[in-house]
Design brief:
The complex is a heterodimer of chains A (148) and B (80).
Chain A (H helix, E strand, L loop, with lengths): L2 H8 L5 E2 L5 H7 L7 E8 L3 E2 L2 E10 L1 H19 L3 E7 L1 E4 L3 E9 L2 H18 L2 E7 L4 E3 L4
Parallel strand pairs in A: 1-5
Antiparallel strand pairs in A: 2-7, 3-4, 4-6, 4-8, 5-7, 8-9
Helix pairs in contact in A: 3-4
Chain B lengths: L1 E5 L2 H7 L2 E5 L6 H11 L4 H4 L3 E4 L2 E3 L11 E4 L6
Parallel strand pairs in B: 1-5
Antiparallel strand pairs in B: 1-2, 3-4, 3-5
The chains are: A alpha+beta (148), B alpha+beta (80).
């Protein structure tokens, strides 16, 4: 499969994207007149892994399953915390230092629930969803990441 | 029956993006896992940590595999 057709295939997913994540749009979409707390989490690309200099990351996913799982996780969080709004998006492909690889937004009447639900969503995405990062180091080597 | 197995991340580096295997009708995911390790003993550590998916669902080890199903080896997640 060529890169362009692969990109096209990935573009149909709601929660997985090759494009940069528009966090301004995400937080704007989460606005709700009843929301006293809107929490946005950005998982950004770090310039080191345990002190070892990182040049960039490449993420890949089994997108049909990843998309479905993120949707289920968000729905569960909405039900558990009675959220007014929740969403998340995970970027895949080559991502540079300080770019956002994953974002989660939650809105609730009160901040406590917005924070708790946001953490629940990102924890489950990191541990369960079939997305993998490969760290490319400044020394020219690469390594599939352990979650941390 | 012949099965196409899709791989990702560290497992892809060991087996390529996908590979074919001949398995007996009615074989389970656990039997497939054992067979994969026999083909490439160096993969045992990672393969034993992987989940398996059929089509677009994660399945248990005792799930039987049917003809023409797509099997995916899912290494431990490292997103975020």
């Amino acid at each position: 499969m060529s890169t362009s057709s692969l990109r096209l295939a990935e573009d149909k997913f709601e929660f997985i994207t090759y494009e940069p994540i528009d966090i301004t749009k995400m937080i704007h979409t989460a606005q709700h007149p009843g929301a006293g707390g809107v929490v946005l989490f950005c998982g950004n690309v770090r310039n080191n892994q345990a002190g070892r200099p990182v040049k960039y990351l490449v993420y890949e996913s089994y997108s049909p399953l990843a998309d479905k799982m993120i949707k289920d996780i968000i729905q569960t969080a909405v039900q558990n915390w009675d959220l007014l709004y929740a969403s998340s998006i995970h970027r895949i492909g080559k991502i540079h230092i300080s770019d956002c690889a994953v974002a989660v937004v939650t809105a609730h009447t009160h901040r406590k629930e917005a924070y708790a639900a946001n953490q629940y969503i990102i924890d489950r995405i990191k541990h369960e969803v079939p997305v993998w990062k490969c760290e490319f180091f400044e020394d020219g080597t690469h390594e599939w990441g352990q979650n941390c | 029956m012949k099965l196409t197995i899709n791989t990702y991340a560290a497992v892809k580096e060991l087996f390529g993006e996908s590979f074919e295997m001949e398995i007996e009708n009615g074989s389970t995911i656990d039997e497939l896992r054992e067979k994969i390790v026999k083909i490439n003993p160096a993969s045992e550590g990672i393969i034993n940590k992987c989940r398996f998916a059929i089509n677009e669902s994660i399945v248990n080890g005792n799930t039987p595999i049917k003809e023409a199903e797509n099997v995916h080896i899912i290494p431990p997640s490292s997103g975020g």
